[in-house]
Amino acid sequence: MTVVIGAYEAMPYLVECLASVEAQTLDHARIEVIAVDDGSTDGTGECLEQFAARVDMPVTVIRQDNSGGPSGPRNVGLDKAAGRYVFFLDADDRLGPEALQRMVAMADRNGTDVVLGRVEGINRKPPQSMWGRTLERTDVWSSNIKFTLSAQKLFRRELLNRHSMRFDESLWTGEDALFTMEAYLRADGVSLIDDYTCYYLVGREDGKHVTRSGSYTLRFDSARALTTLIADMLPPGPRRDMLMVRPFVVTLLPQFGPKYLKDSEKVRRHKFELAKPLLDAYWTDEVARRLRVEERLRMHAVAEQRPELLLDLLEFQRAKKEPEALLEKRGRRVYFAYPHFRDTAVGIPDALYLAEPREARAVPGYREGGLDSFMRRAVRKARRALPSRSRDVRPAAAA
Questions:
Q1: Where are the transmembrane segments (predicted)?
Q2: Which of these is catalytic: 176, 232, 241, 285?
Q3: Half-sphere exposure (CA, 13 Å, Cβ side) for 379?
Q4: What is the CA radius of gyration of the chain?
Q5: Exposed/middle/buried for 264, CB within 10 Å: 0-12, 13-18, 19+?
Q6: Burial label, 367 (beta-carbon count in 10 A; 0-12, 13-18, 19+)
Q7: Cα 389 to Cα 385: distance, rounded to the nearest angstrom
Q8: Catalytic annotation on 65?
Q9: Does the N-terminal peptide bond of residue 97 adopt cis geometry, omega within 30 degrees of 0?
Q10: Angle between the N-to-C axes of helices 293-303 and 307-318, in degrees from 0 to 180, rounded to the nearest 10
Q11: Alpha-carbon distance 108 to 189, whole Å?
């Protein structure tokens, strides 16, 4: 298998990163490392060359002029890769000792094309919602893997080459989300390892991690690219909407959160302008339903191009106010009374304040179910009764 390391100004974090590769329990004869120094000036290239000269595994070090982002080095490494699997390791981070052995075994056992190993953060908080148990085989529809689109996963190289998959070098952020989402959609199965920490995501004390830097416009570029990919690969409908939740929640919503209150009026107007075509094209009732109430209301304000409503919601939250929870229909409906609830002059539909069961369950007195669940129970009861009735029917005599 191939470990691709793209490195730029990675010292001193690179030392522990490389030590974690050397400590792998997978037979070192089965590992090749392709390390790309992307124009560093801090000794990164020299550190990589010293590593290559010392270890008992094949290491190729490529030194190039700075490309401006992580996509270029990863693509260079992928073009050189010869292993059945490829793992993209960031030079700031490190692997658990058994990571590669466990991930390769998981992919071999299940024939899956992508393997996610459990991630632990060090001075950073990694995504959490996809973890909980090991899954030998799953997909993007049956799990929460859409909320972890970083590149630090095991990919079957044949899948990547068959579809000519490479990282988009025109994107300065979110390039890994585009690549990984496409891999999920094209994969013949995905595996999750939950019972062992395979990857340690390290937060740099110097604040130079690429995802923390850059203009807000780069986030809109990322959201535009991901929504376009999803739309190109899936027809309109529930499956597309399910995946559209990710760019709306992870990429767009933060631009209309607390930081929006600190933006200048010019930046606020620009953010609304950048968001409009994305919301016009992909903001549907099904996407809205999958968001929490306050998230849904913020996106509704942006979709309707009503910045005054967004400001009211954000000021409400900044004041640390909690909305009143109103139970109706004998406790089977919960509305969260955020600003302008049932204000006829403002005209926001009640449905946008209605909590879905996953959010409503936290409200004392909520009764999950209602007419739909009653009908489902009635149908199940009728189905259970069918076999007993069939026993009263005598089979026809054989011809």
A1: none
A2: 176
A3: 6
A4: 25
A5: exposed
A6: middle
A7: 7
A8: no
A9: no
A10: 150
A11: 12
**What is the C-alpha to C-alpha distance for residues 63 and 343, in angstroms, rounded to an integer?**
62
Question: What three-state secondary structure class fits 8?
Answer: coil
Which residue carries 């466990």 as its tokens?
Answer: 102
Look at residue 129 in the predicted model and tell me its pLDDT. Answer: 81
* Ranges of H-type helices in the chain: 13-22, 44-54, 71-80, 99-110, 157-162, 175-186, 216-233, 238-246, 258-262, 265-282, 285-289, 293-303, 307-318, 357-360, 371-390
pLDDT for 353-369, tens place per residue? Answer: 999 999 999 999 999 87
Distance CA 6, CA 88 (A): 8
The length of the chain, given as a count of residues: 399
Greatest Cα pair distance, the chain, in angstroms, is 89
Give SS3 for 41.
coil
pLDDT tens readout for residues 25-67: 999 999 999 999 999 999 999 999 999 999 999 999 999 999 9
Task: Give the CATH number of domain 2-202.
Answer: 3.90.550.10
Flag whether pLDDT at 330 surpasses 70: yes
Q: What percent of the chain has pLDDT over 70?
A: 90
Distance CA 346, CA 179 (A): 41
Phi and psi (nearest 5°) for 75? -65, -40
Q: For residue 93, give the 3-state DSSP assignment.
A: coil
Q: Render pLDDT for 146-198 as a digit per residue (tens, 0 to 9).
A: 999 999 999 999 999 999 999 999 998 899 999 999 999 999 999 999 999 99
Provide the 10 A C-beta neighbour count for residue 380: 10
Percent of the chain with pLDDT over 90: 84
* 120 phi, psi to nearest 5 deg: -120, 135
- The whole-angstrom separation of Cα 307 and Cα 273 is 11
For residues 159 and 113, the answer to whether their CB atoms sit within 8 Å is: yes
Cβ contact 127:117 at 8 Å: no
Enter the tokens of residue 116.
């996610």
Domain(s) of CATH 3.90.550.10: residues in the chain: 2-202
- In the prediction, which pLDDT does 46 show? 97
pTM: 0.87
